[in-house]
Specification:
With 204 residues, the protein is of the alpha+beta class. The protein is built from 3 helices and 9 strands; from the N terminus they run H-H-H-E-E-E-E-E-E-E-E-E.
């Protein structure tokens, strides 16, 4: 049986069109994947620039990915021995947890690297996940309170009755206004819904 030349030509055109369509789809997918990869790669510097613009310093050493940054800070920091600033520490726990600083206040020189520990204990009979957000008083001190290491803005999971200790390593910028003699660093610790389900409303 002899094939109709018209049908053969039509089939050839369809195959050619399908090949072009497939190539176009592959090209679009490659572009989309490339854009997604580039966006994900750009998120870290974008976040750092936003934090810098808003005067927020919440990145830990591991987030900054700067090995030895803490040691370098101890060596390179210019300590202003002519001034002392009182740093007060406050802790607020929105839930049945024990959350507090080991030290209520310290006196530091601007430029001096200081470490303070915070304690947290899950008082419940269930596993929970929580995170902390810092705030500062007075507000003009925010951009001068530089944290080199902090547990804030990271989700932490604790088993029933589990206790943990977290450090806050910070430096007060020597450019802090002269009239600011006391800074209060306050943390609010609250439960978050992540991999660990939150407690039902009304339960402890």
């Amino acid at each position: 049986m002899i094939a109709d030349p018209h049908h053969l030509a039509e089939a050839g055109r369809k195959q050619s069109w399908l090949r072009r369509a497939n190539l176009e789809m592959v090209g679009k997918l490659v572009v989309i994947v490339g854009l997604m990869f580039g966006f994900g790669y750009a998120m870290v510097p974008m976040y750092k620039h936003i934090c810098a613009a808003l005067g927020i310093n919440v990145l830990s050493l591991t987030e900054q990915q700067v090995p030895g940054a803490l040691a370098s800070a101890k060596v390179n920091t210019q300590v202003d021995l002519s001034r002392t600033v009182t740093i007060e520490f406050d802790a607020n726990a929105r839930g049945p947890w024990d959350f507090k600083p080991e030290t209520r206040s310290v006196r530091v020189h601007p430029g001096e690297v200081t470490t303070v520990m915070y304690e947290f204990r899950n008082m419940q009979n269930r596993t929970m996940a929580a995170q902390a957000i810092p705030s500062y008083a007075p507000k003009q001190a925010t951009s001068h309170f530089n944290k080199l290491e902090c547990f804030c803005f990271s989700e932490h999971t604790l088993k029933p009755g589990e206790s943990k200790r977290w450090p806050v390593v910070f430096v007060i910028d020597p450019k802090l206004p002269k009239d600011v003699r006391t800074i209060t660093l306050s943390y609010t610790f609250f439960e978050v819904g992540g991999k660990v389900p939150m407690a039902p409303k009304g339960s402890v």
